[in-house]
Amino acid sequence: MTAILAYSDGVNVWIAGDGFCGDELKKDICKNPKTYVINSQLAVGISGFIRQEMILQKVLKTQAPKKITEEWLLFCLPDLLQEAMDSRNALVEKDGQRTAGDSSYILGLLGKIYYLDNDFGVWETAKNIASVGSGREYCLGALSAMPKEALDSDPEGCLVKALGIASEWSPWVNPPFTISKV
Predict the structure, then answer these.
(1) What are the pLDDT digits (tens) for 20-57?
(2) Rounded CA separation 173/71 (Å)
(3) Are 45 and 3 within 8 A, CB to CB?
(4) In a 10 Å sphere around its CB, with 0-12 CB exposed, 13-18 middle and 19+ buried, how is residue 49 labelled?
């Protein structure tokens, strides 16, 4: 349970994440950020099971090419990730399909924002903002209400403000907030 929020100006992508770690029974703050950058090209925001997030990070750090392309992101990463999670018994069975359960991710590459869904589908959003996690609706609402001039002049400040608003309304979103940019 968390909030990951992304914004693109068409050239750069910023992905911001909160620090919440826990569930209905426990609440803590993650020391490691939920956003990071791979090979100075791919921004990643993670939401879901910690074990799966660790597998994703290992796959990206060990198997991403030096030059990450959209083709690799769309057609290679999903298979690599699904195979890695399956080999470590980190998938969830639902309706006869093995998925990543409640996990989902946001990826930023070449000024574009992509969703990596729990069924390992990767798709580009037509919008310049995106969010995943339990605070998704709060983040999208807050960021959508901000003036375009504010987003253009201070995207990081707007992302932090939107996450702050989400943390006021969702018990599953908490500071500290981190931002990764590509």
Answers:
(1) 887 777 778 888 899 999 999 999 999 988 899 999 99
(2) 33
(3) no
(4) middle
User: Over 93-161, what HEC string results?
Assistant: EECCEEECCCCEEEEEECCEEEEECCCCCEEECCCCEEEEECCHHHHHHHHHCCCHHHHHHCHHHHHHH
Q: What is the C-alpha to C-alpha distance for residues 107 and 135, in angstroms, rounded to an integer?
A: 17
- pLDDT one-digit tens code per residue, 102-154: 999 999 999 999 999 999 999 999 999 999 999 999 999 999 999 999 999 99
Phi, psi of 105 (to 5 degrees): -140, 160
Q: What is the pTM of this model?
A: 0.94
C-alpha 163/C-alpha 110 separation (Å) is: 24
Phi, psi of 80 (to 5 degrees): -60, -45
For residues 19 and 167, the answer to whether their CB atoms sit within 8 Å is no
